[in-house]
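Page 42, continued from yesterday. The earlier attempt failed because a stray header line got pasted into the input along with the sequence. Redoing it now with the clean sequence only.
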Amino acid sequence: MNRIPQSFIDDLLNRLDIVEVVDHRVKLKKSGKNYSACCPFHDEKTPSFSVSPDKQFYYCFGCGASGNAIGFLMEYERQGFVDAVESLAKTAGMQVPKEETKESREQHFKQKNIYDTLEKASDYYQTQLKENPKRDLAVRYLQNRGLSGAIAKRFGMGYAPPGWDNLLIKFGLTEEDIDLQIDSGLVIRRDDNNKLYDRFRHRIMFPIRDTRGRAIGFGGRVLDDSKPKYLNSPETDVFHKGRELYGLYEARQASRNLEQLLVVEGYMDVIALAQYGINNAVATLGTACGEDHLRLAFRYVQEVVFCFDGDNAGRTAAKRALMNSISSMEDGRQIRFLFLPEGQDPDTMVRQIGAERFLEQVKAGIPLEDFLFDAAAEGIDIHTMDGRARFTKVAAPLLNKIPQGVYRELMFTNLAKRTGLSSSAIMELTAEKAQLANLEERPAPAPAPAPATEEIPPPELNQGPNESGDIDIPEPPPANYEEDYGTLFQGESEETTSAPTLRKRTSVSLNPVKAATLLLLDNPQLLQQLDKEQQLQAHETQDTELLRLFNLIEYLHKRPNSNFSTLLGFWGGAYGIDSQQELAKMLATHELTRNSKLSTFEPAQVLRHAFDKIHKQFTNQDRQRELAELKNKGLANLSAEEKNRFRELIQSYRPSPNI
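This time it went through. Structure tokens are written below.
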């Protein structure tokens, strides 16, 4: 009899990744879906040693050596079974029980019974979706969500009918049966009166499966006004939500050569994407994606893409995922972040734009390195020496969490280029504790105190184009100032005071045509917020970007209820997929639609300002043409009226760049 319980060994192997175990001792190279190396157990020049992350198994085609992570450690380090288990348990942060006791045997038997009970419950829920007399509402809900019977079967979807004791009656009312259902998370016993009732009632049921395909818990979506809308199984002896990814088993069944996992937020997102042939989506179970989730994901793929809503809550969740991801960025791995338009989720978006265009947006996701530096710089003006110093103190400790390797070195090199500091100076900062452990909780920097004696009146918003003809977007003014109040700064931040409050703004210079295009694509309803005289009228031009803006405005006039997805479709149809992909990437990364400071500014005001800037540039160009025509006539040949007009044009002349 083994001294260590089998249940512990099973749990240990579930937590480990054999690729990591072997790679720490024998350097592996990716070879198709597996990893290979020269066999450590016999001499060879051509690699015949293969490690399968899918099967969590190694095999040598030369000498026949094979086994799991425990077997590898025993053979490679010549350890006994117990020593190998203890060594791996230490790596996994687990405590090894020293001997198999009566309690451990009972625990192992209990876990087996829980697995059996959950599997029976899954079968029961699936049968109810097919046969229960009250199933119509559930079936209509799934049909309205566009799900086929085949996809529902593939994910084992079911129906928990109304009633308080369906499972209790189905699985027996002996004390042993009841305890097992409670331990499985299927039945609740009230503490105050000891009454029993089914946890899931009148809900669409989603079985949560482990990597072996065993049901370990459930999620339930309500079909009436009950709360909560989604209900998950509690933590049990077999279900730990912080270590499971919903849909991973189904993704692996759909493709044995997974290269990427798309992490979304909900059950229906996973299933809807699968309905459209996107079979690599998984979801966390009501919790942020943590290190255990990523450890599990990187067993099977080298790339993870997080998909979040583009609103503030989505970006906060993305920063939390970023913080949990840094320590997982070993060489060869990639993490990207995809932000959807506000109000959209993968379920609704894939139905609107289709799988091909959705996948194009996935490809345009922001790499972790870019998102990390953007998040670290949030609220900091890195154009100043003090800002670069503060930015470095925030970013350097984060980079220090990256595992040793080429990627880590490249990140520090990137930071050095962004700050102008030497690599040695940055490395000194890596030992410092991060000033802000969680980026999403970082408060905005406090404004500098206002000078006691100096008051500077605010400049007017429409003070003319800057030298480049760009539109400068100011930080939003306080609510007690006029709607059209703003500033036009160029370069670094300036401070403008108006008693009694000092206000600090950050300048962002944008081409007005690009600014207007991005704003209308990101929020099409902005056009309807402007009066007719505030809107931009079509003008004769040869500029491609401006022509596209005019076409976009015309399209929005014809289809005022358009949304981001339909506009992307329009753009792709009019200008091609490459242009659409470039646009999607720009929307996801451009400072106007990405920067949190700018996103809080009144967008309709910015759009009016952009339209006004374009109109003024056209006016200047018309004046330039008229002035050139008068000059060509010769001053002596001008009439009195033309001479007066010539003087007016000379006085009002301001060079304007081509649009």
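Notes: The two ends are 82 Å apart (CA to CA).
Reminder to self: strip header lines before submitting.
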